[in-house]
Specification:
The chain has 228 residues and is of the alpha/beta class. It has a single domain, classed as Rossmann fold. It contains seven helices and 14 strands. It has a seven-stranded mixed sheet with strand order 1-11-9-7-4-5-6, with helices on both faces. Strands 8-10-12 form a three-stranded parallel sheet. Strand 13 and strand 14 form a beta hairpin. The longest helix has 19 residues. The relative contact order is 0.16. The N terminus is likely disordered.
């Protein structure tokens, strides 16, 4: 029997980008280089954390491109002028624990005044369904733009659970940022929340029976914290 041809991962990226205007692949040479190092099993824990922070810093420029600004009067050392500053109560970064904290530091480097929320989720090893064990979000989340962060969008169920929590607090402007996404994870988020923009550095070919992205980077939490 002839084998069904499979699309090359780059073809999958192209097809998804063509059909999903809310999917943003941040494809920059520096990000590609650092992602290659993150994938390498020989990369140390300390180096892995540094690389993840650096990548989130680079990706953050695109993710935060549409933050609203307002004109303010300032005085330079030479004269008075007008300039643009971020308007309103700015934003909230919501980390899906525990691996989301690997992306959190880079974004806070860009917007140090951002509020931070945490959603603790672990994946049931048998059902792969996320189980919530911790939740702490700002009370005024409805007044802020939220960026939910998790290095991997694998099955998509944790992302959907986190988005549901944030939207449940009437947060109208929600984005999801990850390092690597799978087609299955993207589809899960799209089925539940087609309006939520997804930002990723790469789309890998898929997930295995345990819900791991292939080729992926392994377990992001273990690699960030040096655990097994």
């Amino acid at each position: 029997m002839a084998k069904t041809p499979r699309c090359h991962p780059s073809c999958v990226q192209l097809l998804l980008r063509m059909t999903d205007k809310n999917l943003h692949i941040i494809d920059h040479p520096l990000i590609r280089h650092k992602l290659a190092l993150l994938r390498d099993r020989e990369t140390s824990t300390n180096k892995f954390r540094d690389l993840l922070r650096e990548v989130s810093l680079l990706m953050g420029y695109e993710v935060l491109r549409d933050l609203p600004t307002e004109e303010v009067a300032i005085e330079t050392p030479l004269e008075k002028t007008k300039a643009q500053k971020i308007a309103g109560k700015k934003m909230c970064i919501v980390s899906i624990m525990r691996s989301g904290d690997g992306l959190l530091e880079g974004l806070l480097g860009l917007v140090p005044t951002a509020r931070v929320g945490h959603i603790g989720l672990y994946r049931d090893p048998d059902t792969l369904v996320p189980v919530e064990y911790y939740l702490k979000l700002p009370e005024d989340l409805h007044d802020r733009a939220a960026v939910i962060v998790d290095p991997l969008l694998a099955t998509g169920q944790s992302a959907v659970a986190a988005i549901s929590r944030v939207k449940g607090l009437d947060c109208a402007h929600v984005k999801f940022l990850c390092l690597i996404a799978s087609p299955e994870g993207i589809a899960a988020v799209r089925d539940a929340y087609p309006d939520v923009p997804i930002y990723a550095a790469a789309i890998d070919r898929g997930i295995d029976e345990d819900g791991n992205i292939l080729p992926g980077i392994g377990d992001a939490g273990n690699r960030i914290f040096g655990t097994q």
